[in-house]
Design goal:
The longest helix has 31 residues. With 378 residues, this protein is an alpha/beta fold. The chain contains 15 helices and twelve strands. The strands form four sheets. The chain has a five-stranded parallel β-sheet with strand order 5-6-9-4-10. A three-stranded parallel β-sheet has the order 1-2-3. A two-stranded antiparallel ribbon has the order 7-8.
Length: 378
Amino acid sequence: ERAVRVALEVNLSKAGHIVSLADSGERALDILRSQDVDVVLTDFMMPQMTGTELLARVKERWPLTQVVMMTGHGTVERAVEAMRSGAHDFVIKPVARAELLAILERAIRERDLHRQVARLQAEASERYAFEHVIGSTPAMTRVYDQVRAVAASSAYVLLSGPTGTGKELIAHAIHHQSPRANGPFIKVNCGALPAGLLESELFGHEKGAFTGATRQHKGKFEQADGGTLMLDELGEMPIETQVKLLRILESGQFQRVGGTVELHVDVRVVAATNRTLRDEVRAGRFREDLYYRLNVFEIELPRLRDRTDDIPLLVDHFVQHFAQKHSKSVQSVSEDALSQLLQHTWPGNVRELEHVVERAIILAHDTVLHQFDLPNDE
């Protein structure tokens, strides 16, 4: 209604907003095609094109533009349904000026958040081209610079940092940016097996080398020949296995368990640990010569609490990934939910954040991830 539009224009303009008026859904679409609009405030019941139809058209063409529905008491249920279709919020007529301004401010902040995420995504994609590695804070920029510097070389790399900081992703990035990118990338968890089985896993074994060895087995070093071998949880490796690892790192030669033939491989080793290896050396649990052999180039991964500006980008990435994985309609995160995620200390780092978002996606019943979808302690 014209009188309502004019009154809204006066009040919103006084509050500092730039207002465009449309007397129909089609006219609103014309304005959207010619201007960058933050928020569409639309009546629910309109002739020719309803507010629901306009909402669908807006979200399809301009997904970052927020839509706020105005409705009478009799259509509240349909307005709530519109929110499930992507509307930011709804107001019941007649609406108080303060209430409307508060809702519009929240809608604008949410659009700004989406814009920031989109900008960070574009920046990360354009500048870094690190598959699945998310972040553009100074702490992560240093990591990217170090990866680029070392990837083209054949130097061994030591990745250090707490559990859940993304050491395996960085190992993949080093491999894929190196001349060995077309070769295999093989990973072995040094803390998952006892000494005897770990040696067989790393170096292979001959048939009959031990009970149950019914055939020859090629170890991870042979499988990684011409490529990269990631030794995860290096600090867990038994001392006796460390001796054999040092030999192959120094000469490229080794024997399978139970074998007598000297084998030679060309493998680039990237080791990862959540322990401080210098302390392990002092405690006698890690060989000093092996430490210096592997620590040619160390990259320290930052804790998530030291790169909190990356959290919105990481959350958006996980939302899109898990919404698709679990066939959910979640498209974005509410301001309150993001604020709660930003305040958490994240002792489990990025991995903990990933698990929290996945759980919330599974519980969500809306297109927006809300604060009540998150665990109470996050």
